[in-house]
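Slide 14.
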Amino acid sequence: MRPTVASPESVTWRVHLDRAMWVAGVRALMLQALHPVAMQGVWQRSDFMRDPLQRLLRIAHFIAVTTYGSPEEAEELGERVRTVHRSMSFTDPATGEAYRLDQPDLLVWVHCAEVVSYLEVVVRAGLPLSAADADRYLAEQAHTATYVGLRPDDVPRSVAEMRRYLAEVRPTLRVTPEATQAVRFLLWPAVPERLRRLAPLRPAWFPIAALAYHCLPGWARQQYAVLPEAPGTQAATTQALRAFRRTLNASPRHLYNRLFDEETVRSAEAARERLAAAGYDIRGGFPRGRRVGDRTPDPGRPARLDSVA
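Slide 15: predicted structure.
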């Protein structure tokens, strides 16, 4: 049996273990909000506006378990997600049409907005990936889509396929009042009662969310028009994103783990034990595609992914 869902040699590990994923996750939520129907599903059936941090932590837990959890853990979590989706429906107020949360076209959009955000942001933050690595990542993530009820062939499996999908769906995307309110809320969220002790740290959130906003495609930023964008903003965003990544990468693991909930940390520690038993060197934390004595492969030609979306 495999020690983890995805191999430590996979591109998925390299992307998902990157600490710039915090910015990528917020960017994914902002991009997802541009689909009017999907946004209604979130608006009507999610606790996102009451507790956005919990939503981010659930996403982080899903990523963690489906990346380095055991196959059994991933399938159990996937079944819980599918059960919740099957039990919920909502109505598009513009048309009166009823939708289920597990409608395939909505699941495909959510999947694509997530994985393209993860890929683009971590590469922009400085993770060296080749064009072939980018294709491999999307192919690997096609399997992850099965945990929410899709088939691997339902989602793009290469950068070229992703570009085609996003070009096709683009005419249906627009900023609704709910999307604008969601983005404004992500930039300056309310602090839930259970986290009142963290309220003094609230101003530290805005730079992270602003980075996520400025990492959106140009057309999306133009439609939202929530934050001003002076000449040079995009270059400054890249530099700030790389500095943010360096800062988090320099943080000790025991401190960094405090950002996650206890269940995610327990799952990570169990994965480390399985990897050690399988012969991986985990003395520096999680292995990044290396067994004891192996050499890290040459990353090859860097990918150019800023314009995928």
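Speaker note: The CA atoms of residues 52 and 189 lie 7 Å apart.
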